[in-house]
């Protein structure tokens, strides 16, 4: 389950987010509610949430002040919730690396899309699938085996393989390779790493495997991809 915290001084906002999360049976555990910025900082320290819904206009400490402290410590994914009157201010928060801006009044579809963008994967109606997706997106850079997922879900390997293929249209291993190559492309686009360092960072100890899967999913070798990016 993804641990989440709602930080908003308006009861109506806290209530509607909680209601939607429960109604949609999202794999999210609400660990607390903060009514002001100081309380938000305290609860973040206490619960270490992975996802935070944060209003910018709160008493004691503003949402901006909370974000500044979180950015320094690189914590959690943040979704800004804001009234239309302060939407321009919310856009400034994007400079601090928040994931999304959710205007009030909050609508279910907007909430669902914001959460998906924040966590990086789509929820399904199947609890076991959500468990697998959460684990894979957290650990895809590691060298884990299918056996790890069987221990997590208490299901057999065959059952998990069939279930994953049914919901995602591809195998677990193929999905992991896709995630790794997507992250490699992101690193290349940001010009942060060279080819060998990128391969290692996304989970490949073998350069041959990295080249093979990169070509399979992008149609280019890493060198060709980098060269094409420089021309843009």
UniProtKB/TrEMBL annotation:
The modification 4-aspartylphosphate is found at residue 55. The keyword DNA-binding applies. Residues 130-228 form the HTH araC/xylS-type domain. GO terms for biological process: phosphorelay signal transduction system. It holds the Pfam family HTH_18. Gene3D superfamilies: 3.40.50.2300, Homeodomain-like. PROSITE patterns: HTH_ARAC_FAMILY_2 (PS01124), RESPONSE_REGULATORY (PS50110). SUPFAM superfamilies: CheY-like, Homeodomain-like. Keywords: DNA-binding, Phosphoprotein, Transcription, Transcription regulation. Residues 3-119 form the Response regulatory domain. The keyword DNA-binding applies. May play the central regulatory role in sporulation. It may be an element of the effector pathway responsible for the activation of sporulation genes in response to nutritional stress. Spo0A may act in concert with spo0H (a sigma factor) to control the expression of some genes that are critical to the sporulation process. This is Stage 0 sporulation protein A homolog. The lineage of its organism: Bacteria, Bacillati, Bacillota, Clostridia, Lachnospirales.
